[in-house]
Amino acid sequence: MKKQLLLALSFLLISGYASAQKEYKLAKSTGRLTLNISGAIIEGYSGNEIIFTAKTTEDAEVDERAKGLRAISGSGFTDNTGLGIEVTEKGQEITVNTVSKKTDGELTIKVPQGIKVVFNNNGNALDQEDILVKNLKSEIEISTSFNKIRLENNTGPMNVKSLHGTIDAIFSGEIKGPVSIVSVYGYVDVTMPTATKANIELSSSRGNLYAADAFKIAIDKPEEKPVAKDRTDLKNVAVIARAATQTKVNGLTINTGPNVPGLSTSVNGISINNVYIGRDSENIKGKINGGGTDLVFKSNFQNVYLRTK
């Protein structure tokens, strides 16, 4: 028995030595939390404090020369939490900024359900970490350049966009709209219950759209695009015509215009009517279960997936 107790105590001591947790709390249950940081795990809960924690391990690099000093940056931010971040509060606005290039360990933020969460990170690829947002019942806004984003069991409303990062979203129950999830160069993968009532839009300029048959999307009739009657009647397509570009290939000058009757492409002065380069984007607008919440899922260059829960 004594041997077992000694082993248990030894295990606890080793575990405590191997990893430690720093914590900072802010008494706040309503308002807006703006996060200007590289990445985090953000979790909603039914409390009345915003709780910031960072886990560090035994092998975490420690700068002995920095002991007794506080991290500062050229931006003017000062670490007032001990976690490598600055937290400021002005009325209902709470703002978090990164002070050092990396936070002190993996940052987890527990957020009361009455607080709106805004996440911004439009820095370079070296300053991007994964983002996990889960169990939030309040509004979410995310804007990033390279972060991979994962959303789990959030209700919305939400506006999530990334330039290069992929976005995975799993909805477990009721969805409060509007919901917009968009990536330019990454895929968008969404899972939601088949019972969801929604007005849905799926779109990809260069990728494909995939959806589970169980959703039975009632696709809206596409709107008719204006078409010029002849070469002199181009008023309705003037805006499209401005999108024409000029390209040189092996010494040939190519002026390309969209595939609209009445417009032409010229190669070194030779007119070629209705030349089309590329392909139309995939775009679907429709209703699920008769319509309801507005949902928009888009990727410019990758695929969009819609799965059943």
Summary tags:
single chain, 309 residues, 2 domains, 11-stranded mixed beta sheet, 10-stranded mixed beta sheet, 2 helices
What does this structure look like?
This protein has an eleven-stranded mixed beta sheet with strand order 5-6-2-8-10-12-14-24-16-23-18, with no helix packed on it. A ten-stranded mixed beta sheet has the order 1-4-7-3-9-11-13-15-25-17. It has two domains: 20-220 and 282-308; 235-273, no CATH class. The protein is 7% helix and 44% strand. It has helices spanning 2-18, 238-241; strands at 19-27, 31-36, 40-45, 49-57, 85-90, 93-98, 106-112, 115-121, 131-134, 140-144, 149-152, 158-162, 167-170, 179-183, 188-192, 198-204, 209-211, 218-219, 245-249, 252-256, 264-267, 270-273, 282-288, 293-299, 304-308. A hairpin with a 2-residue loop joins strand 5 and strand 6 (93-98). The protein is built from two helices and 25 strands. The protein has 309 residues and is mainly beta.
Overall strand count:
25
- Main β sheet profile: 11 strands, mixed
Q: Helicity range of the residues?
A: under 10%
For the residues shown, what is the average pLDDT? 80
| SS class | mainly beta
Oligomer: single chain
Give the percentage of residues in beta strands.
35-45%
Order of helices and strands: HEEEEEEEEEEEEEEEEEEHEEEEEEE
Amino- and carboxy-terminal Cα gap: 48 Å
Low-confidence stretches: 9-18, 231-278
User: How are the strands of the biggest sheet laid out side by side?
Assistant: 5-6-2-8-10-12-14-24-16-23-18
- In total, how many domains does the architecture comprise? 2
* SS element count, helices: 2
Rg from Cα = 26 Å
